[in-house]
């Protein structure tokens, strides 16, 4: 089975721009979660999508949004980028229950200049 | 709300020495506990998990963790580490809410540095 893939792997943007990141989950997984990882804040939960519906949301501003398609692929969008948005963005897929293992992609490294 | 505290941000150790990475969680309900490992430039991958039953869980590469419900701890141990164990380790807790969804919470990570 192919693992979770994320594109692009690296991205450089300037302040004020917007960005879209993509995540393809493992086949058969209906849940996709997004995390922001920074050295100072660690791993922070952004949101989770399950069967095209946002089921859980972390404590991030509305500039961060996402969606999930019928094939479970997910996109995350960040508008009006700020310097503090520089981070590794990780996506994870799973079956969507509390006991479930999350399978992570390699991440997208976003640098905002 | 559940929370996870990893008590050490960095643990240096010499090769072949034993190691313990500490994790405490707070929750008044039944929880599921996980340890994930992240190697440089990679995503996280599951090391081991506790769902129910035996308090001791083991991984295939020699790590083990034991849940202590009275102390709400889930420390990760290995009796003899290798250079290749150098990585970031994350403790995580989740549970199933009444609505059927879950919100996993991760600790801030412990960097295990194994010296030759």
Structure description:
Chain A is mainly β and 113 residues long. Chain A contains no helices and eleven strands. Chain A has strands spanning 5-7, 10-13, 19-24, 31-38, 42-50, 53-57, 64-68, 74-78, 87-94, 103-104, 108-112. In chain A, strands 2, 4, 5, 6, 9, 10 and 11 form a seven-stranded mixed sheet that branches. In chain A, a hairpin with an 8-residue loop joins strand 9 (87-94) and strand 10. The radius of gyration of chain A is 13 Å and the shape is globular. Chain B is mainly β and 116 residues long. Helix content of chain B is 0%, strand content 52%. Chain B has strands spanning 3-6, 10-14, 19-21, 23-26, 32-38, 44-50, 56-58, 64-68, 73-78, 87-94, 105-106, 110-115. Chain B is globular. Chain B starts with a strand and ends with a strand. The chains are: A mainly beta (113), B mainly beta (116). The interface between A and B is medium-sized, with 25 and 26 residues.
Helix-strand layout with pairing:
The complex is a heterodimer of chains A (113) and B (116).
Chain A: E1 5-7, E2 10-13, E3 19-24, E4 31-38, E5 42-50, E6 53-57, E7 64-68, E8 74-78, E9 87-94, E10 103-104, E11 108-112
Parallel strand pairs in A: 2-11
Antiparallel strand pairs in A: 1-3, 3-8, 4-5, 4-9, 5-6, 7-8, 9-10, 9-11
Chain B: E1 3-6, E2 10-14, E3 19-21, E4 23-26, E5 32-38, E6 44-50, E7 56-58, E8 64-68, E9 73-78, E10 87-94, E11 105-106, E12 110-115
Parallel strand pairs in B: 2-12
Antiparallel strand pairs in B: 1-4, 3-9, 5-6, 5-10, 7-8, 8-9, 10-11, 10-12
Give the strand content of chain B. over 45%
* C-alpha termini separation of chain B: 41 Å
What's the helical proportion of residues of chain B?
A: under 10%
Individual helix count of chain A: 0
Please state the structural category of chain B.
Answer: mainly beta
For the biggest sheet of chain A, the summary is: 7 strands, mixed
Poorly predicted regions of chain A are none
Oligomer: heterodimer
Pair of chains with the largest interface and how many residues each contributes: A-B, 25 and 26 residues
- Shape summary of chain B: globular
Q: Which parts of chain B are unreliable, with pLDDT below 50 for 5 consecutive residues or more?
A: none
N to C succession of SSEs of chain A = EEEEEEEEEEE
Got a strand count of chain A? Answer: 11
Element-by-element helix/strand order of chain B: EEEEEEEEEEEE
Helix content of chain A: under 10%
Number of strands of chain B: 12
Number of helices of chain B: 0
């Amino acid at each position: 089975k192919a693992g979770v893939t994320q594109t692009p792997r690296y991205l450089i943007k300037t302040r004020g721009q917007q960005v879209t990141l993509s995540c393809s989950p493992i086949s058969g997984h209906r849940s996709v979660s997004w995390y922001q990882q920074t050295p100072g804040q660690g791993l922070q939960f952004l949101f989770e999508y399950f069967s095209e519906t946002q089921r859980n949301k972390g404590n991030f501003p509305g500039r961060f949004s996402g969606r999930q398609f019928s094939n479970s692929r997910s996109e995350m969008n960040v508008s009006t980028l700020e310097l503090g948005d520089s981070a590794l963005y990780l996506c994870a897929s799973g079956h969507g229950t509390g006991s479930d293992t999350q399978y992570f992609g390699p991440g997208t490294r976003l640098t905002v200049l | 709300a559940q929370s996870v505290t990893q008590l050490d941000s960095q643990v240096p150790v010499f090769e072949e020495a034993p190691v313990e990475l500490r994790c405490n969680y707070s929750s008044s309900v039944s929880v599921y506990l996980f340890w994930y490992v992240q190697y440089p430039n990679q995503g996280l991958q599951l090391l081991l998990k506790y769902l129910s039953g035996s308090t001791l869980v083991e991984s295939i590469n020699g790590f083990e963790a034991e849940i202590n419900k009275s102390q709400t701890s889930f420390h990760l141990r290995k009796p003899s580490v290798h250079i290749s164990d150098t990585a970031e380790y994350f403790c995580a807790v989740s549970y199933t809410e009444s609505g059927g969804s879950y919100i996993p919470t991760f600790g801030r990570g412990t960097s295990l540095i194994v010296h030759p």
